[in-house]
Amino acid sequence: MTPEKVVFHLDEREKVPLVLNNVKNLIDELEGVEVEVVAHAGGVEGLRTGSSHAELMERLAESGVRFVVCENTLRSRNILRSDFPGYVGTVPSAIVELVVRQAEGWRYLKP
Q: Cβ distance 13 to 41 under 8 Å?
């Protein structure tokens, strides 16, 4: 079986725990899965340094999960790149990232 590639769309702060737990369950059960969490709008808030989810996020990142936040959102909300742990990357546009990943064959999930 070809390893799956899954992109999670996170745009609501309230859904951060749900998304992180979904990601954890997925990587625990599906060997070789590649996962990217794309956050924009309110979703970026729950990924900031010092959030209550920091420990789980770090464990997931160490397991290969990629976290990215939208530069458009950061700019519009006056949030600094330095407000996030070092393993959180940025993309110019979360929406474009989601479209590109789907065009590349990634499975799209929005809990």
A: no
* Mean pLDDT, residues 48-58 taken together: 94
The string of DSSP codes covering 14-65 is GGHHHHHHHHHHHHHHSTT-EEEEEE-GGGGGGGSTT-TTHHHHHHHHHTT-
Q: Residue 107 pLDDT more than 60?
A: yes
Q: Which residues pair with 91 in a beta bridge?
A: 70
User: What is the number of residues in the chain?
Assistant: 111
**Structural domains of the chain, with CATH:** 5-109 (3.40.1260.10)
pLDDT at 1: 55
- Cα(34)–Cα(6) distance, rounded to whole angstroms? 6
> Which tens digit of pLDDT belongs to each residue from 18-28?
999 999 999 99
Report, in angstroms and rounded to the nearest whole number, the Rg of the chain calculated over CA atoms. 13
